[in-house]
Amino acid sequence: MFTVAQISNWTRAQHANTDSPDAVALLSSLQIRGMATLKAATAADVAFFFSRNYEADLKNTRARLIITGNAFVKPLQASGLPQWKESIFLACADPYLAMAELSSRFSALFSAHDHQENDAHSQIHPTAVIDPSVKLGVGVRVGAHAFIGKNSIVRDHAVIYPQCYLGPECEVGEESVLFPRVTLYERTRIGKRCRIHSGVVLGADGFGYAPEFDAQTKLPTGHRKIYHLGGVVLEDEVEIGANSTVDRGTLGDTIIRSYAKIDNLVQVGHNCEVGMGAILCGTSGMAGSSSLGKFVYVGAQSGTGNQVHIGDYSKLAAYTGAAKDVEPHSEMGGVPARPLSDYYRILAIQNKLLRERGKK
Question: Among the options 115, 157, 197, 270, which is catalytic?
Answer without folding.
Answer: 270
